[in-house]
User: Which sequence fits this backbone?
């Protein structure tokens, strides 16, 4: 999976972008609030207090007589020059406000303040009450203009911050919307296609390949669904084929049984060759019951309920008996066996008989005509081993291995027509409940060999 | 049941010897001459040899050797449309199989002896 184009990465980008925009908005708002606070403090400490002090000085000057000196007014003058003078003050407020005045093109106001302060100083020194009152009034006017300028300046700055906040907010919403749309366009149609495909499969049982050519996790999901649906479809086709083969295999012996039985019912003896009729009914009934039993066991094995009733028995005898019983059913094929005597195991004899029939039938089905199937049975180190060598067979190893899957079958010619044997799924399950193993291995080219191992 | 004599010759092409034996028994009871073959190739040889004598063909679907469609086409080409060919099969969907082989008559296995007898005698299922 390519992480760079994954759905998770797209969503991560979207969330990161939204978070960055929100953080930018918060920072801008905090800066604006901080500037507002700074403006208000400046207005109060630097402007309003100087206006109030000047007003107090004007009250003091109103009662001053010519030639008299006022300590309060002199103290006001010194305080003003130290704390509130803009024109040549050295406080941070004075420096900042002087810069604002310069930026706002109002440097004349500072020059006026400087002149007024120089006049006030001379008037205080000369004790000219009238001039003091006029100078203080002029200073008051200058300070009111300062406050007015600063107020307008603060309003401009607030408006500017608000415009920034709006711009960032709108840009942020637009970018988020675009990113969201991009993510939606990149993901939603593909998810819809997946859902539609699942729905169609549920409704019709047919799978149309989704074919998502992307390289992200949705493509991985689509490919997994394709593979899963394809496997289900194949299994379903295998099951249908298997059922039709089973139906055919069940109907074939019933045809002879029902045909002869209905003939004997509607046409009492003497029927020509009645012994042959009874022999066919008997043989086909036996074949039918064996097939039904195998199907029943396979069904139980599929649901994991294979009943296992072990007891000690002579496995060598069982192998020999099954080989003997199978001979009449083979055409142009024989078994060549090498069986070690008296190998006993603890197992379910009836189940193992089915397993042997199944394994040897498949082996003979794959074996070429006029070639004997080599069967060997021996015990080595607490294990009983059965090997079935189908030399000369043109079947490939993967083809044989497929027989271990459920619903597999193999067709073969018996000399009594084409027969189908159910695959080796049941056989493998029977061996598995015995804690044994069944596998197929390539001994050499054109020589696959089944190996069954059971604890002895 | 009274024994009736039906004298048309039938050819049974089926790889199951037990089914051929069943038809043989029924044919013997009703004195119907019967020819049989275990696969299509041998059936065609009999058709070639006994052409004109055979009045009906019983044909199985799954048999070793030739493919069913080729087998049916060869038999129809040999017999002509006047000789009925009846598909007798244990396959699922015998009707569909018959249509595949371009055969209009079919019966599904298993089948009652009476149905086989009526086929042998009247010539139609």
Assistant:
């Amino acid at each position: 999976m390519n992480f760079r184009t994954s759905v998770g990465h797209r969503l991560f980008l979207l969330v990161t972008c939204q978070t960055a925009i929100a953080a930018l908005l918060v920072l801008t708002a905090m800066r604006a609030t901080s500037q507002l606070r700074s403006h208000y403090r400046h207005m109060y400490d630097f402007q309003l207090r100087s206006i109030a002090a000047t007003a107090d000085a004007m009250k003091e000057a109103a009662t001053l007589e010519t030639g008299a000196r006022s300590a309060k007014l002199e103290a006001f003058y010194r305080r003003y020059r130290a704390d509130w003078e803009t024109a040549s003050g050295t406080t941070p407020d004075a420096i900042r406000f002087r810069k604002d005045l310069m930026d706002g093109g109002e440097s004349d106001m500072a020059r006026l303040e400087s002149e007024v302060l120089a006049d006030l100083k001379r008037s205080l020194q000369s004790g000219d009450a009238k001039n003091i009152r006029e100078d203080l009034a002029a200073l008051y006017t200058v300070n009111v203009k300062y406050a007015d300028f600063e107020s307008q300046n603060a309003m401009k700055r607030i408006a500017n911050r608000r415009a920034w906040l709006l711009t960032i907010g709108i840009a942020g919403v637009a970018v988020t919307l675009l990113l969201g749309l991009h993510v939606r366009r990149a993901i939603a149609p593909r998810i819809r296609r997946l859902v539609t495909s699942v729905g169609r499969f549920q409704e019709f049982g047919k799978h149309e390949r989704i074919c998502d050519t992307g390289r992200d996790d949705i493509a991985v999901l689509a490919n997994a669904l394709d593979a899963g649906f394809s496997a289900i479809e194949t299994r379903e086709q295998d099951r249908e084929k298997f059922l039709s083969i089973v139906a055919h295999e069940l109907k074939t012996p019933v045809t002879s049984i029902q045909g002869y039985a209905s003939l004997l019912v509607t046409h009492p003896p003497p029927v020509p060759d009645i012994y042959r009729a009874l022999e066919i009914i008997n043989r086909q009934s036996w074949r039918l019951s064996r097939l039904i039993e195998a199907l029943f066991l396979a069904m139980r094995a599929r649901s994991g309920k294979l009943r296992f009733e072990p007891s000690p028995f002579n496995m060598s005898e069982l192998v020999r008996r099954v080989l003997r019983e199978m001979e009449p059913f083979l055409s142009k094929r024989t078994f060549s066996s090498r069986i070690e005597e008296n190998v006993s195991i603890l197992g379910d004899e009836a189940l193992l008989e089915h397993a042997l029939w199944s394994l040897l039938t498949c082996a003979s089905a794959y074996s070429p005509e006029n070639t004997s199937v080599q069967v060997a049975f021996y015990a080595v180190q607490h294990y009983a081993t059965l090997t079935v060598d189908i030399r000369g067979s043109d079947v490939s190893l993967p083809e044989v291995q497929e027989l271990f899957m459920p619903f597999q079958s193999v067709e073969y010619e018996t000399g009594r027509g084409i027969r189908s044997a159910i695959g080796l799924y049941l056989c493998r399950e029977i061996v598995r409940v015995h804690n044994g193993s069944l596998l197929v291995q390539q001994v050499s080219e054109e020589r696959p060999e089944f190996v069954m191992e059971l604890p002895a | 049941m009274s024994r009736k004599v039906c004298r048309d010759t039938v050819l049974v092409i089926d790889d199951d010897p037990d089914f051929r034996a069943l038809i043989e028994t029924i044919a013997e009871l009703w004195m119907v001459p019967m020819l049989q073959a275990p696969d299509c190739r041998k059936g065609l040889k009999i058709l070639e040899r006994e052409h004109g004598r055979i009045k009906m063909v019983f044909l199985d679907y799954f048999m070793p050797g030739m493919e069913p469609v080729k087998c049916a086409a060869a038999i129809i080409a040999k017999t002509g449309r006047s000789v009925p060919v009846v598909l007798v099969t244990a396959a699922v969907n015998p009707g569909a199989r018959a249509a595949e082989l371009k055969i209009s008559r079919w019966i599904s296995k298993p089948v009652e002896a009476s149905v086989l007898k009526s086929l042998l005698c009247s010539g139609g299922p």
User: Anything to note?
Assistant: The mean pLDDT of chain B is 88. The beta strands of chain B are 9-13, 34-37, 54-59, 85-89, 105-108.
